[in-house]
Inverse folding.
């Protein structure tokens, strides 16, 4: 008699349990992801300085709005409502940047006293006097408005003596290569064509010199950072200030700073005049 084997009951099909397991895993993953996102969001809200950014943006908007009011009161007649310029009155300001605004307005060249070949330097108006806090703030606001609407070269963050480089000797070499043909070897200026001239650099402050190199006012060329690096510009400023403060007359008297051979030229002229005078005296005596 053959032994009988009892067949154990079949276990529940695994196929019936897999869908429930997948659903659970998906729900757990979604829950973990949600908790992670909520945690990151909470951490970001704590770390992110959103209020400071909003305040900064609001301050920038207020500065630009103030600059627009100043522009409408002082500049719109000659430069147009959209900075496009007005024929026979003033050029377009699109692309000049806040550097040009600072140079022209802080040096008193703008607004023009009258239409002429050369914009003459004069004391700035009280509204834009850079020596007062109110004037400096107004200058910054006007520049911000022109920059926001037209773009262009911007002034560096450094100001004043911080714009002087630490190598005036190198600055002197660069100045003689790029600037002396118009401004003279010591920045005393010189005549140009059509009633224009390169002005003396003595009254210009560091910010104005840097802005002039960036923007190229009048006949002056523009010097981008590819032509003269920011450090080279600062070295040039250091050289200009070293020869304009009256403490760099190595040969003695500066004699007006008309060049490195000024004393020799004057000695030659005086000596030649003395010789001619002596010769005439001898001839008259005979």
């Amino acid at each position: 008699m053959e032994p009988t084997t009892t067949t154990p009951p079949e276990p529940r099909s695994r196929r019936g349990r897999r869908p429930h397991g997948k659903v659970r895993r998906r729900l757990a993953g979604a829950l973990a992801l949600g908790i992670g996102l909520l945690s990151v969001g909470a951490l970001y809200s704590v770390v992110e300085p959103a209020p400071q950014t909003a305040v900064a943006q609001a301050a920038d908007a207020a500065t630009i709005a103030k600059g627009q009011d100043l522009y409408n009161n002082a500049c719109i007649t000659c430069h147009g409502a959209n900075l496009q310029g007005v024929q026979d009155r003033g050029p377009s300001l699109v692309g000049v940047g806040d550097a040009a605004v600072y140079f022209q307005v802080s040096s008193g060249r703008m607004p023009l006293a009258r239409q002429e070949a050369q914009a003459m330097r004069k004391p700035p108006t009280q509204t834009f006097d850079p020596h007062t806090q109110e004037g400096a703030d107004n200058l910054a606001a006007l520049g911000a408005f022109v920059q926001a609407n037209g773009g262009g070269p911007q002034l560096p963050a450094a100001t004043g003596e911080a714009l002087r480089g630490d190598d005036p000797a190198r600055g002197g070499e660069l100045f003689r290569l790029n600037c002396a043909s118009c401004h003279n070897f010591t920045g005393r200026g010189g005549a140009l064509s059509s009633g224009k001239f390169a002005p003396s650099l003595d009254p210009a402050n560091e910010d104005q010199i840097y802005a002039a190199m960036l923007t190229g006012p009048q006949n002056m060329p523009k010097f981008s950072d590819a032509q003269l690096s920011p450090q080279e510009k600062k070295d040039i400023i250091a050289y200009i200030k070293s020869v304009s403060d009256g403490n760099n007359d190595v040969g003695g008297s500066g004699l007006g700073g008309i060049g490195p051979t000024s004393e020799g030229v004057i000695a030659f002229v005086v000596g030649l005049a003395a010789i001619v005078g002596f010769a005439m005296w001898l001839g008259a005596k005979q």
Observations:
- Residues 276 and 282 are 10 Å apart (CA to CA).
- Residues 14-47 form the longest helix (34 residues).
